[in-house]
């Protein structure tokens, strides 16, 4: 039984990155990921665990705030794309 529990918990790794999207920090409108990259215009910032299509909500710009004891984003958050 302990072995089964260990296998189950090992699937909950905290090393995976939270879902993120590049957004305009003022308007929260979703931008192309190049706007957040080092070579981009710098107009965007990575937004983690948010939801929405054209504008985001329910997330944070603080990647560290998504750790939640190793369980990642709250249930219902967007899968997003990109990284940061």
Summarize the structure.
The chain is largely without helices or strands and 84 residues long. It has one helix at 2-10, and strands at residues 20-23, 45-48.
Defining key terms:
single chain, 84 residues, little secondary structure, two-stranded antiparallel sheet, 1 helix, globular, disordered N terminus
Structural class: little secondary structure
Calculate the terminal CA-CA distance, rounded to whole Å.
38 Å
Helix proportion: 10-25%
Global shape: globular
Largest sheet: 2 strands, antiparallel
Poorly predicted parts: 2-14
Number of helices: 1
**Percent of residues in β-strands:** 5-15%
Strand order of the largest sheet: 1-2
The averaged pLDDT comes out at 74
Oligomeric state as shown: single chain
What is the number of E strands?
2
Radius of gyration using CA atoms only: 15 Å
Along the chain, the helix and strand elements come as HEE
How do the strands and helices of this protein lay out in sequence?
Elements: H1 2-10, E1 20-23, E2 45-48
Antiparallel strand pairs: 1-2
Description:
The chain has 84 residues and is mostly loops. The protein is built from one helix and two strands. A two-stranded antiparallel sheet has the order 1-2. The longest helix has 9 residues, at 2-10. The model is unreliable at 2-14 (pLDDT under 50).
């Amino acid at each position: 039984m302990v072995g089964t529990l260990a296998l189950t918990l090992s699937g909950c790794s905290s090393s995976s990155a939270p879902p993120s999207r590049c957004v305009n920090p003022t308007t929260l409108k979703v931008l192309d990921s190049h706007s957040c990259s080092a070579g981009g215009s710098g107009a965007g910032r990575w937004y983690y665990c948010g939801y929405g299509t054209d504008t985001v909500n329910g997330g944070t710009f603080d990647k560290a705030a998504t750790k939640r004891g190793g369980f990642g984003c709250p249930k219902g958050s967007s899968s997003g794309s990109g990284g940061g």
